[in-house]
Amino acid sequence: MIYTDLQMPKAGDRVVVGLSGGVDSTVTILMLKERGCIVTGVTMALWKNDLPQLPQTVVLHDSCYGPGEEADIEDCRAFCKDHDIPYYVIDVKEAYQEQVLDYFKAEYRAGRTPNPCIRCNRFIKFGALLAGIEKIGIEYDYFCTGHYAKLVRGQQTIASLYGSQASDSPEGKACPPQIAGAFDSTKDQAYFLYRIPSETLEKVRFPLASMTKKEVFAFAREHKLKAADREESQDFIPEPYLDYIFSDKPSIPGDIIDLDGHVLGKHRGIEHYTIGQRRGLGVSAKEPLYVAAIDKEKNLVVLGKDSDLFCQGLIADDIVWPAAYDPNTSFTAQVKIRLASRPVTAKLSPYIPGPGETFVGKPYLVTFEQEQRAVAPGQSVVFYKDNIVCGGGIISKALKSL
Q: N vs C: which end of the chain shows fewer Cβ within 10 Å?
């Protein structure tokens, strides 16, 4: 497949930019303004300020959701005032509570490991925020953010990506925008963006796609931007608040066992554990042990050796395809099971559910060419061809053997 980059905003275009107060979004909007675009800055208001005040001795790192939001908004407002840029704050608190926070808690309590950033991008940054912009009457040609990713369009139909046996459904005739990896592979965020619908991507652009982080900081320092001295967000929620997030329901303690069923200790609630975890288990052993499985029905945390964490495949469901086109065929792609993992070649095939199995939408079986470590249900598996996203879904089951 031959791809062309989607055109970036040009002089005179009306561009809304999502601002966080960080260096990436700040550089994005200033670059566009210098290019001659008619820019407007918007920030999401997420923080409900409904968690307890922490002692002053507790140091909070900057995060997506936390008490630092008010200061971030004031920084954005001051920056926009200094550069004569219209600025708005869009309240998305209720949508964030429902789509991200409630989802986050429910998934952990189900023994799964959610990715709140992916959920937020789909339903908040490129969902509720855009709806809020339209509600207050802001018209725009493009919506831009400081993500490190690129948007491209194939010169052939999307169906041609998946082989001659791919479905002949009408959606396959489209040539939708697709997310590609950024030039700076160390900062590439395509994995986080895979769930954004193709129709939304038509008006989205990522101006930092061809820049390195070093170049972004150089631009910020050259323009004497306050954001150049700011730390990047570290977490979804500051760690000291995590226990408060789950305090709406009492945790249910249970047994920690090994793969043979021997009781090794007690856990404080399965929502506090994730696949591959080693620290904070509270058990002693002759060799390192890791969380190998979480059994919600029996309220068990199962530990194993490092070698017990490897899987030959997985079943993915709740899958998102470019142009909503399901190829309904087997095909080969590169897949990533988490942001930091290296892509691995895998075969993907439609999966026929067995007795008692239930899935969200049509599931696919993903068979790795090389075994993968710590495949965590609830996380995302993203499919790539030539470093371009061609689909992705939520890991429903990890398969030790096939």
A: C
